[in-house]
TrEMBL record:
This is TolC family protein. Keywords: Signal. It comes from Algoriphagus marincola. It comes from the Bacteria. Residues 1-20 form the signal peptide. The keyword Signal applies.
């Protein structure tokens, strides 16, 4: 008895170990985020653009000038002059531009997050497809076994001359068709894994999960929408563009203030020197003309554009959410009807008892199998739709 208990515990531990070694969807997405070449390139691009933006708020280079005038009629020594000066915009301009650069950097990060979510959503779709294919593979494997069992029985009856060659051929074709389906599914699994590996930067990975882990039930529509408005980069980008337009207006107003120049100057001839500070002011009478109005117009446009795009996004989200709920309701009805029917075994028993001919058995079997396949496909489409609705959570 103790030996049986030990073997049972070992079997449980091995099963748990095998489950732990099979990566989850979340672990696959983490690998893709780390290894995806497009995301790596985009991250480097974002960093270069961020540094480029920061360089736009540097002071201009200092100016160094000198005069040496030895020519001409003069009784004194040669005239010399030396000057060093630094020009700069009004100090508040640098603060306003710095705030604008910070907001533009946030926009770059949102661009990266939007692309990241697009890539992870595609990767998750591939994972969901693999789960769907694994479920179909399990189903088709069982069907092949059943088809082989029927073929063996028909062949035995044929050898006893109780059925004709036509019925034997039908049973063999039915068995072959199920085998072909398995080959096609296995090919689809390989192709899907190749696409997943490509998203993973060419690094090999395995994914053998056979059941969906997430619930199909969604939170209330208003709750999901409020969450999307807060964390969905495609929606927060709109608000961020509005913030950038507001900060651009602030910068334009600050640039109406004068530019300043300060420096040191020394000049004179032999025996006489004069030195002191140098100061200058550049009044922006013309350079900033209409720029404040243009910035204000851009802000007005952005506010209207944000409102319009948000309404469009909500309309699209609402339709998708409602369609999802309708499909979920149909799937739940389908599942409740088909679960527990045990149609394959009942039909097989009826055929074995001679209550159905092979053709009747096969036609009835295909009806129930098509219904079950439709349920699997509907379940898969629901998870794909859910992935799109909740993409902002990736």
């Amino acid at each position: 008895m103790y030996k049986n208990i030990v073997f049972a515990l070992c079997g449980c531990l091995m099963a748990f170990g095998g489950f732990a070694q099979s990566p989850s969807i979340d672990s696959i997405l983490k690998q893709v985020e780390q290894n995806n070449q497009e995301l790596k390139a985009l991250s480097e691009y974002v960093e270069s653009k961020r540094l480029e933006l920061k360089s736009g708020n540097n002071l201009p280079d200092p100016q160094l000038g000198a005069y040496y005038l030895p020519f001409g009629d003069h009784s004194t020594g040669d005239y010399t002059e030396f000057q060093i000066s630094q020009s700069f915009e009004f100090p508040t301009v640098y603060g306003a531009r710095g705030n604008l650069i910070d907001q533009q950097s946030v926009q770059l990060e949102l661009d990266y997050q939007a692309k990241r979510q697009d890539i992870l959503a595609v990767a998750k779709n591939h994972c969901l497809n693999l789960i769907y294919l694994n479920k179909r593979l399990d189903t088709e494997t069982l069907r092949v076994e059943q088809a082989k069992q029927v073929f063996d029985q028909v062949q035995e009856l044929y050898e006893k001359e109780q059925v004709g060659i036509l019925e034997l051929n039908k049973a063999k074709v039915a068995w072959m068709q199920e085998q072909f389906k398995i080959q096609q599914i296995e090919s689809d699994v390989k192709n899907t894994l190749l696409q997943l590996v490509n998203l993973n930067g060419g690094n090999e990975l395995s994914f053998t999960q056979g059941e969906y882990s997430a619930s199909l039930v969604l939170a209330a529509k208003d709750s999901v929408w409020q969450e999307k408005q807060v964390i969905d980069p495609e929606l927060t980008q709109l608000k961020q563009q509005e913030t950038i337009a507001q900060q651009s207006l602030s910068l334009a107003k600050n640039k109406s203030l004068p530019n300043l120049t300060a420096g040191y100057n020394t000049q004179g001839v032999a025996g006489e020197r004069f030195s002191g500070v140098y100061a200058g002011v550049t009044i922006p009478l013309w350079s900033n003309r209409n720029k404040v109005k243009a910035a204000q117009s851009q802000l007005d446009f952005q506010q209207t554009f944000t409102s319009s795009k948000t309404l469009q996004a909500y309309a699209s989200f609402e339709k998708q959410y409602n369609d999802y709920q309708i499909m979920l309701s149909k799937f739940q009805e389908y599942e409740a009807t088909l679960t527990g029917l045990n149609s394959d075994e009942l039909l097989l028993q009826a055929y074995q008892l001679g209550e159905l001919s092979f053709l009747e058995y096969y036609m009835e079997l295909q009806f129930y199998r098509q219904a079950y396949d439709a349920m699997l496909d509907m379940q898969y489409q629901l998870y794909i739709s859910q992935n799109q609705l909740l993409k902002h959570q990736l």
